[in-house]
């Protein structure tokens, strides 16, 4: 854990008691802050109380008694409307920050020279974060990895000059980290996403830009127009910018976990980060070849039925699903869930790669119309389990080459599952059920 010693003696309100919120309260208490935690969920408040954490109703008393409000990233800051805790903090003139900001302040206080890599982008950030950590470990570095990728940043070991933190940052987290200043900041790509939380694409892009604006080295993708413009602005402002692309020369033939053209951009970004931190190219290449990959992100599920089963549950939008479709020539495609703006229209150029589509969840009817308009065979199955059974039967009857069943939903999971991880586990279990393990 990273104790928030830079908040010692300060009164801090914390709203949102999920995983990162609880970690934040523990960090503040350990650092000597006077914390008061709360949540709209009685169960979450009860869990915090059971741990002996300081809990109090933030709606009671004068909010101006606090120095800071630490907001969990899942709590609305601006859209669709600010949460009531945000309104109270603003009215009292209290700063609103998140756990990434606490880490940044702690780093400046205890180890300002400590290496800190922060990674964002609409797609690819989790793979890039995990691959960066893996390569740096291959180089013998003491690596702490977390943030949006799973382990709350304040649960990681504290910053030190002998340690490097590799942290995935969502737009929600960046929005709550006004002084974010990594040694190396990575902004991979931008496409439409999370507009329900940021209002417009312009706001979303501006928030993402904050991560690289104060970086010692800014690694920015050049495969979309918004990112290209961002790189140009930062160069003009004197920031050290390294541009990366899917088209960069990089050999991933020995890296089975990095299949697909999109991973060339991820690997190029990792190479730029590692070079900036003094890692030689031979070590970087070794790291690529030994990288095991991430669950639910183009993850191959081993079976003995002759079918290649790909779990890409992390593909929560069309842009991410495009990367998966582009990686295979002929696929039996399982998709659907809670649709994002634009549906799957952007994927039409990849429809010739689809032998048959199997639709699940809330998006099934709308997606069936898009597929039918482009002569893609489809079936509405409703659930992952039924879709896997149907895809298995069809793939076994395929006559050309090794069949691929691709679960790349192009949708959020919230209509049927808590998150993409739970959805991916449901797919894995369904595959094991039809293949015998």
From TrEMBL:
Residues 296-410 form the Mur ligase C-terminal domain. The keyword Ligase applies. PROSITE patterns: FOLYLPOLYGLU_SYNT_1 (PS01011). GO terms for molecular function: UDP-N-acetylmuramoylalanine-D-glutamate ligase activity. Keywords: ATP-binding, Cell cycle, Cell division, Cell shape, Cell wall biogenesis/degradation, Cytoplasm, Ligase, Nucleotide-binding, Peptidoglycan synthesis. It comes from the Bacteria. Pathway: Cell wall biogenesis; peptidoglycan biosynthesis. It is found in: Cytoplasm. It is an enzyme of class 6 (ligase). Its main location: cytoplasm. It catalyses: UDP-N-acetyl-alpha-D-muramoyl-L-alanine + D-glutamate + ATP = UDP-N-acetyl-alpha-D-muramoyl-L-alanyl-D-glutamate + ADP + phosphate + H(+). Coiled coil: none annotated. Its EC number is 6.3.2.9. Residues 119-255 form the Mur ligase central domain. Cell wall formation. Catalyzes the addition of glutamate to the nucleotide precursor UDP-N-acetylmuramoyl-L-alanine (UMA). PANTHER family: UDP-N-ACETYLMURAMOYLALANINE--D-GLUTAMATE LIGASE (PTHR43692). Belongs to the MurCDEF family. This is UDP-N-acetylmuramoylalanine--D-glutamate ligase. The lineage of its organism: Bacteria, Pseudomonadati, Pseudomonadota, Alphaproteobacteria, Hyphomicrobiales.
């Amino acid at each position: 854990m990273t104790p928030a010693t830079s908040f010692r003696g300060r009164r801090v309100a914390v709203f949102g008691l999920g995983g990162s919120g609880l970690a934040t309260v523990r960090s503040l208490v350990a650092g000597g802050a006077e914390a008061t935690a709360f949540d709209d969920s009685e169960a979450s408040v009860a869990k915090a109380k059971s741990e002996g954490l300081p809990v109090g109703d933030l709606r009671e008393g004068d909010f101006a008694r606090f120095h800071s409000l630490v907001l969990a990233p899942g709590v609305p800051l601006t859209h669709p409307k600010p949460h009531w805790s945000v309104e109270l903090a603003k009215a009292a003139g209290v700063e609103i920050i998140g756990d990434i900001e606490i880490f940044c302040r702690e780093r400046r206080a205890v180890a300002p020279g400590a290496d800190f890599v922060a990674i964002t982008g609409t797609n690819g950030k989790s793979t890039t974060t995990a691959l960066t950590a893996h390569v740096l470990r291959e180089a013998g570095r003491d690596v702490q990895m977390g943030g949006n990728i799973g382990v709350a940043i304040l649960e990681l070991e504290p910053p030190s000059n002998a340690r490097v933190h590799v942290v995935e940052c969502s737009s929600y987290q960046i929005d709550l980290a006004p002084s974010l200043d990594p040694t190396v900041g990575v902004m991979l790509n931008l496409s439409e996403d999370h507009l329900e939380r940021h209002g417009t694409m312009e706001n979303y892009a501006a928030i993402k830009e904050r991560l690289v604006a104060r970086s010692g080295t800014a690694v920015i993708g050049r495969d979309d127009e918004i990112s290209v413009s961002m790189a140009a602005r930062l160069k003009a402002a004197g920031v050290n910018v390294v541009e990366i692309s899917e088209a960069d020369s990089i050999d991933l033939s020995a890296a089975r976990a990095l299949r697909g053209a999109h991973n060339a951009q991820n690997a190029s970004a990792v190479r730029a980060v590692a070079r900036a931190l003094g890692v030689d190219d031979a070590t970087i290449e070794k790291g690529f070849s030994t990288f095991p990959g991430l669950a639910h992100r183009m993850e191959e599920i081993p079976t003995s039925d002759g079918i290649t089963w790909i779990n890409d549950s992390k593909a929560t939008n069309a842009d991410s699903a495009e990367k998966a479709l582009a990686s295979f020539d002929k696929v039996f495609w399982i998709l659907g869930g809670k649709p994002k703006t634009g549906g799957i229209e952007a994927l039409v150029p990849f429809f010739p790669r689809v032998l048959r589509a199997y639709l699940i969840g809330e998006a099934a009817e709308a997606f069936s119309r898009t597929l039918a308009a482009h002569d893609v065979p489809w079936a509405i199955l409703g659930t992952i389990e039924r879709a896997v059974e149907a895809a298995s039967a069809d793939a076994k009857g395929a006559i050309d080459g090794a069949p691929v069943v691709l679960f790349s939903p192009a949708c959020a999971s919230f209509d049927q599952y808590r998150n993409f991880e739970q959805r991916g586990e449901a797919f894995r279990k369904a595959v094991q059920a039809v293949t015998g393990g």
